[in-house]
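cache lookup: miss for this entity combination. No prior model stored, computing from scratch. Input as submitted by user K.M.:
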Amino acid sequence: MAGLGLAASASSEPTTGYSFGSFGAPGLIDMPTAETRPAGEFSATVAARQGDSRAAFNFQIAPSLSGTLRFSESEDLGTGGSKLKDRSFDLHWQVFEEAGWRPAIALGLRDIVGDSGQSSEYLVATKTLTPRLRASVGLGWGRLGSEGGSGGTRPAPSGDGGFNADQWFRGPVAPFAGLSFAANDRLTLKAEISSDAYTTEVGNGFERKTSLNFGADYKVNKAVSLGAYLLHGSEIGLQATIAMDPRDPPAPSGLEKAPLPVRPRAAAASGWSGAWSADPTARPAIQKALGDALKSDGQILEAMKLTTTGVEIRLRNETYNARPQAIGHAARMLTRAMPASVENFTITLVEKGMPVSSTRLRRSDIEAMENGPAHELLARTEITEAGLGSDGFTAATAVYPRVKYAFSPYLELSSHEPGQSLRADAGLQAKAQIELTPGLLLSGTVRQKLVGNIADGSYSASGTSPAIVRSDINTYKSNSDLAVQNLTLAWYARPAENLYSRVTVGYLERMYGGISGELLWKPVDSRLALGAEIDYVKKRDYEQHFSFADYETVSGHLSAYYDFGEGITGQLDLGRYLAEDWGATIAVDRELANGWKVGAFATLTDMSSAEFGNGAFDKGIRLSIPLSWAIGQPSLATFNQTLRPYSGDGGARVDVDGRLYDTIRSGHIGELYQNWGRVWR
Amino acid sequence: MSRALALAALTALSLAACSRDSAEIGAKSGAGPAKGTLSRMLPFGKPTPAQPASAEQIAASALQSIEGPVLLAQFDNGATVIFAERGRNGEMRTYLSPDGRSLSLRGGMIAATRGFGRDVMSSDATQSAALVSARQGGTVPRVQYYLDGDGRERPYPMTCTITPTEPVTQGTGDQSLTVTPVTELCEPAQAQNSYMVNEAGQIIASRQWIGPRMGYLTITALRD
């Protein structure tokens, strides 16, 4: 849709890279450029040459800022014939966009937390000379200042896995330059003069015959590109990139069935008088018809309150990622099911048995504005705190107890440990849930590994931490024969206005069992939410059956959540973590209206970085990709992944399922407004 | 060997991951539609449809089996869809196809589509409709709304120039039918809509632009 001119005008757009460099970010071959990728784009690049392979994940966090997480294995960088297995993180900031005569200018840091002495920094300018030709020149420090560099000495890396800030932009600085030429829409040719001396590699037998590198990149389609390069006249490398733009889904959205048309009331309809309400058979018949219609739409009518002039329904959406779509479908059905005298529609969304918001629509507005601009309907819609209690409601029969189960395959990756390769298991997973009454859920997950090599690794828990609470995660992952991932009884409720509560008892996650209680304050129209959680947990045995290990603790947090708008939310947690360390977690997430969500978090506690070991403190990124984005049909299914560079014992929390804020947020005003465009879909 | 077997079992299972829900939610939307979508996304193995029936055959059988107003809609690639009227709301008439897509027309002009993907969410073509119906020329604004890749509603404002041409009469006497071809060129989309308008000012056939990457739909009213 961007090509349509619906987005911002082209002149203010950042200089988008033609292709990816060998570090998995926009660039030439080894040298960076000042280019960026489309905001929000995710890409994965695999690059390999003899003795060196890399897998890099690049995310364009903001139009001018991107981050790259890279896993590499290199014989050329190892010592004594061993491979260097490394994980590194880069940041790239386009300080100025290209404008008029001015080139785009970017600053970057490669391998920010590295301890192998391979990190580097750069300042680079890129100018579009013709629409197909771009030139870049820059200055490099660290590795990028090693060939032809001069001036100063670079401090040694700290080696503790923390930021190497005292190294940045210090020591010898060297110039580099390059050209990229888009020969046509698919093929890009690249050449560069490298300022990287390959010092360690040359020591291990790499031949650096020249400073010139050449590369070519071929775009197979919108998402996939393949590349090859000749490095320093001696080595040939190959690479492949898959790029996913969350704003450009693989399938067009809206392949679902069309909603039912609104049925306007005829002036002569018999229902106008309201006399129908005296008929005792009317309400049950209406509720049954509406419930059946909603069921075939993938929604559950939990309860209904019907008066002569108004109706309120409690609606459990089981299908639509965008809640306004669920509301719109229900409103359309109400126009078909309700007698003519019923003018006020109140649609209350229910999540895990808790009413989270009430959307009030006037039937005459729905009739007048069907398939009109969604924002016009929003202006005549009122979204408020949901009414609590069941006064006047008639609950639907035959919904509870509700039993759900599913068998599916699963894939699991080992957590990173220094010196260990990335390993994976695949197998079968059985999931079951019994909802006894709305909000009271018994659920469990069991996994059986079929293939994989996670158990082949040799893992060691932290040798420095005062308590082993998370650093032995790979030992749990190695035990995957009928492993009980979780088995819990959870109770969700609304104790008072603006308050939500959860109590979960049982095997909360693969490593801990116990009891977890949570209370959340979140007015429906508030950007701010406050929460408190307390967990009493015991560590489980490695087999993950029903016995416990010899560690128990009380962990608890006070949390503040803030919705900054545009899908950005921040979260701050203060409290005690699993290793009985005290501290704070800060997290920022960005969510698009189509459900893509990316976030980063970091936790600092009073556990020292020496006790934490590799990585110094807990941090990571998390990613959610909705299935609906990929297939163009509505679904609540989401692929979630959290990536941590190191799993340590400091700042660890119990991973209990169904925390309140994420459970209710999609039904509150911020997200309802963001997704409102789908109300008539 | 056992690994290969296990892998095969896993693959088989992943293709037929099974689930059950006592509330019967989502029972129908299992692997079926997802599979269809997958084949649409993959570059190879595009399904080759069986020899399609001609538009005339489709129209004849639709008129026989469906009661009430019926539309025949054809995409430029030849795909033909029958729509039957399922809702009337003021001037808007909504037609549903057997495969669950819908087309809403206001005075014969596309007001909204659903289930096509990249749908027209809504359209305000009131001024165009007035000129087309009156068979008069002029330049007027028109706005169509879409969801962008992010999922937000975006207006696509256009300026449309409407040009009627000479009326054409077919047949003689009571059987004669006089229609006026009217064209509408909308910028910046470069969309060229064309309409056949009868003497009562009704659009009886048209070719209308749906939106970016969707192209045109040729709509014929088989029975009004």
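stored under new cache key. Confidence is low (pLDDT under 50) at residues 1-12 of chain A.
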